[in-house]
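Regression test attached.
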Amino acid sequence: MDSLVTYLGYDFVRHALVAGTLAAVLGAVVGYFVVVRNVGFAAHALSHIGFTGAAAAALFGLGPLQGILLFTVVAGLIMGASGDRLQRSDMAIGMVLSVSLGLGTLFLSLYRGYAGQKLAILFGDIFGVSQAQIVEMTILSILSLAALALFSRKLLFASIQPHIAEARGLSLTALSLAFMAVLAVSVSLASQIVGILLVFTLVIAPAGIGLRLCHSFWWGIATSVGVGVGAVWLGIMLGCVTDRPVTFWISALLFVVYMGVEGYKRLR
Amino acid sequence: MPTALKISGLRITLGGNAILTGVDADIQAGEFVGIFGPNGAGKTTLVRAIVDTLRPTAGRIEIFGEPPGRASRYIGYMPQSNSGLELTALSARAIIEAVCEGERWGLPWSTRRTRREVERVLQLAGAAAYADRSFAQLSGGERQRVMLAQALLGEPKILVLDEPLASLDPRNQALLIEVVARVKEQTGATILFVAHDMNPLLHVMDRVLYMAGGGAILGRLDEVVSSESLSKLYGFPIEVVRAGERVFVVSRDGNVAELACHEGHDHS
């Protein structure tokens, strides 16, 4: 207990907690719609396209977040515009995913900087978050959540009953575009914390658990946020105490919770 | 009685295939019209044109004197498929609340008025008893009644039901038809009921719209479903067989089994 308090005295731990909370909240809320809309693979692909963005940013001397944001938002908009069928097409997404990872590999081979950065891109570096990054993340989180709040009612309707929403005059393509843009931003933020390979843990796992457990929208969102934030906090604490990667702890904790929920659902 | 639905010279071509080549129909307010025809006759295409998710190639549709887009507030629509929620625990009530005023901006808060309206349609459709259970765990019949409840939101003047009997057992088919007939009785709504098999609907229909070969004929059951008029519509000899109270449409020579299988597969 003493050691936990000591850890909280360090700037890098406090920064990690703030940044982790932001990424968890945004991931949990956006992830809820990812799961309802059944576009998990598209979300997964977006995060990996972020790797290409980060590699390009390193090569051209931009900040990693800028590079990731640029690539994921553009890719997200293309996916959103290409319509429902393509968004759920494993083949189309798989092709885009592999060509962008290929490009990322090319960029990395051209980049002659410090190789350790490559690992940070892939697995996250939660204790390396600076004050400036936190400001950046806070602004982006607030903007994304505000945008989502603006059209969340339409989005929920269109996600749950697309045929009826279309008949009532909603544009499924416009909603899909707007959502993919928000998803791209939240994927970029989450990749700062848990790394590109593990964005899934923050964007899908908490929301999946919330949706699996709760009968109503708001309870689902609340559970999703609670699970996401809880896992990030506990993960950071365990990371401090055990000196093992925080990313490992977060993903392991969420997996255990997920298994528990699945078991509970099956037993009933 | 005012005209609820006026279709004149409707032609719809999809991807180079002429689906509808000239459909005319004049349906009065308060009528219960069954829409039948073999697979590929364009039943769902016609429905999609009425609910404005498909633009006609030529011809006009008027719903209470207005074009489909603007008439959407008059229409309660139950689409053919409703899937994608299998892995969620969302309740029927949560789903209908999302549909209720789902086209508005903002957060999906349910006002007291929304909740009252949702409770009203659940009662009307006889789905209130299981509205708080997970939609994914409901039986086929229960799900269809929830989807019917959804179509009753906002007291529509015209109900468009696209194959609501598909994959229901005879008991649940009868239950759903009973609910629709009661709704018509209580609210005076016009009913457009698309089905594969006309037999379960014989006692509640006012008129029949039979679609085949790109065209359609509208009239009383004995006018429309006769060997003579259906032979003309199909363009080859058709025999209408009556067995007791029931009606079967079969090909006169040759492939009797196949046509019978198209027409009566729910009872085969």
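Expected vs. actual: identical. The longest strand of chain B covers residues 3-14.
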